[in-house]
Amino acid sequence: MQVTLLNGDKYDQSELVDNMSSDEFYYSFLGIDKALSYSSLKWLLKSPKWFEYKMRNPSPETQALRDGKLVHTQILEPQKYSQFTFVDTSSKNTKKWKLAVEQNGKAYTYTNKEKYMNNRITTAFMQNDRCVEFLKDSEVEVGALEMFGKIPVRAKADILRAGEFVADVKTTNDGLKQIELKNGAVKNQFAFTVDKYDYDLQAYLYTQIYNVPDFYWLVVDKTTTDIGIFKASQETLNKGKLKLEACLQLYEAFFIDELIDLSQFYVESQI
To answer: Does pTM top 0.90 for this prediction?
Structure first.
């Protein structure tokens, strides 16, 4: 099937998907000017102006993303873990650190402290039989691209068991405690994290792109290394569906049909 990217270029869908195993291809070639993703859809939810700003001003890699890259590589693609260089230094201002970055690139250079933290997290995950069950008979780091109307959206599933589920490996600083609400109901802290970061949008989007009924988060608390396994409920998926529909409508109105001048965009209400 032929797909049309956001910049108007046309490609065979299978050709694009076949090349998505390369991070350079996935994140750079298929950047925000060519296809949306869960991350860029979140920017639209925040504000069309914010989305437009992020298009023009790509963010540098955050510490959370760097940490996540280590965790994902060691768990999902351990054969690639040797690409990282670890430096025995207490500061990233030292000459030793700067030389290592110059030689290996910042994206692949970490301190020993970062390595030890990653080892705690990944060891907790890989020693947990329930977590490891998700990896059995599954594929990892599976790229995909689907058209939602006129809009191409790319994705990369951490763990895919075709026809059954997508599972996403997460780390959190927000905790995994069970909290008793005022009405007597019990809710895990991660449910608030799902709302905070629009993970429900990701859950619904991935069930649609990969044509599976279920989505799971496999979560490791960075501090305690406690583990939480959470299945997206139908209510959560429904919330994600509404968010996805809103994002697609916003993108179409502002960036395809250009119905609204961004400079004239405002929110008005009585409070």
So the answer is: yes
